[in-house]
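Residues and backbone
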Amino acid sequence: MGSRPDFDPATDSVQVRGTFNGWSASNPLAREGVSKFYSGQVKIPTAAYDSAHYKFTFTKGTSTYWEDAIGDRVSVITGDTTLVWKSFEDKAIVQVLPVTVTIVVNTATVPDTLKPISFVQMRGGTPPLTWDQNSPVMFTNIGGDYWTANVEFFPGATVQYKIFTFANGTLTADDYGAGWENNTTDGSGNRTLTVGSADTVLPLAFVNGSATTQDQYWRPYTPSDSVDVWFRVNLQSRETFKKGIEAIGVRGSFNGWGPKSLLLKQEAQHGNNGSRKYDALNFWSGVAKIPASAFAGGAVEYKYVVLDANTDSAAIVAWENVSNRTIAQNAAQGDTTLYWKWFDDIPYAPPVVKDTIIVTFRANMNRAISERGFSIGDTLDVRSGYNATAQEVRIKRMTRQGLSTYYQAIDTVVANIGKDLNYQYYVTKNGIEVREIYYDFNYLPAGDAAAEKRRIAVTSNTMSVQDTSTSTANTHRVPRFKNLQHLTQNVTVTYTVDVRPAIYTLLAGKSLVATNITAYVLSDPDSVLLWGVWMNGPAVGGWDTRGAWGSARRADTTSHMYDDGTHGDLVAGDSVFSLLYDYTTADVVGQEFKFGIGGFDNEGGFGNNHNENINDAGSTWTIASQFGSIDPTFYDAWDFDNQVPRFTTGVSGETGIPLAYELRQNYPNPFNPSTTIQFALPKAGNVSLKVFNTLGQEVATVVAGVLTPGIHTVTFDASRLSTGVYFYQIKAGDFMSL
């Protein structure tokens, strides 16, 4: 398609039409890698062998373009064959050269201790960018908070991208996803760029480390006609600072050194949960609007001050014990951010750990073995001391206990009694090191990156850790690992997801919030089945491949799941959605994915995904999941271990005593095999709830006894009954309803 300069591989598609498909139909062709070559297989009936007439077409938006400049292409087919490649309309290939795009970003809005040697990267979906740690475009620090990078794109390309930051200069496997900026206000959540025909320099972009979505060219302050100077200081090293009482200000020559201070604001935690590697509350920042005339006599001087209250007129508790800081005279040339400083220029020193602890780590590898994430003979390590919870991060080899699936290690760590110790399991399989799949559902604040590590409270000098629970929600559940080996044969996988956990969670009064489009909230239980389910992630081709979360994802039929008896779905209308996906030996055994009702990212927090291993012993395999099992604490209306609702007779999602009797519509309806029935009782009394068939015959008694006032929720299991229509009736005192 290189002969059509207006052709955009990112959005346009190519087809072939001819006598073999009736000209009106089309056979789609697939793009070859990142080139403009498109190819595909067409099955031509033997009756059309003598003279197959055809043309190439391409679709842009709602318009289809034919090879109008030439007549029909004709090929005499005598059997299976390949046709020599052609350019569209047989025209010369237009050599389109890439243009250079210069990106300048500012990291003053990232709540972390970034330094000039930190890791700042551009990730995206348009080559050469990738959405992972291998993206080749790295930013270079050009002073303070300012970074720049150059990247080549082809004119007309539409690029979606984000900035990834990490305080350390290099990434380890633990950190590959721990630095994403928060979303933009674009529906995709990404930054967007339409590449022009010439080299260009993009406007300054502040990395979005804020707590909310932002326009891609936002600023942390409102620009003025003065010189806007952004101040930023870190208080972590000041142990005497009274959080919640004291505040931080700035005094200097720009405000006459008093009597009031420029009041700074305590920063908020990073809006992307997976990027919360540092406590943002240590930072204070704010803007001063300084007239350009203030720089006429030279540099502007200032110091940070501790205030006894959070007002600009508060008394000063302490001045910095350093020489006056300065803002260079060239700052008058335009707005600027001042690179963050430690208060008093005293860096934070981690607390001294002093207690010697002998820890016995014990883990059952039975599930990891059954899921092919671990094999007897693989190397298993336990690593402890993450997040400065010990003097150092230690690695201890674990040994198998007899012929069992239990592995154990005894290690001596230096930590603090009364604090937590973070640890994690790693397996080395065929020379490839793999971190365990783990998420601490009880960790606060919810979504913090530290939740990806295990933790144990250090209570004595001798401790034992037993990670042997088979419960999916238990903090000390057994380890699981992704298998990164390649499949040994092609496998068709049936993915299924039971959405009843979402239904019952909404019935309990909670809401599902789309993390990529924060304004979209699902609260109605009926919306789960009405919207349907889509998958996203490497398991279906990659994150946001063929469309980001939202409307673009809903347009993708490949990741759309079905509950209509097709696409691998066994029972239509049973709230279990399915899809089929084909894998080859180029794919790995371990696959990562997430489900989204309505195509929204609403199952769990960022970075909290499903990970499952494919069994390639045969050509087919089924991976069965429950929606929300990646966050059982939130979906607590569902028992993931037993795969049933947590039914209680009592208030469920509503408070107070009902004013009247009420029998509510069952849900789901129709159902197979069970349904939920709710009813309201304004006072205590004897209650019966019975089910009848269309002949009026009683087939089940669901409730019989005295119940307290409130909203009661019960389940009716009809698995033993034949398919048909049933009615339910409640009697409570003088109240009766059918």
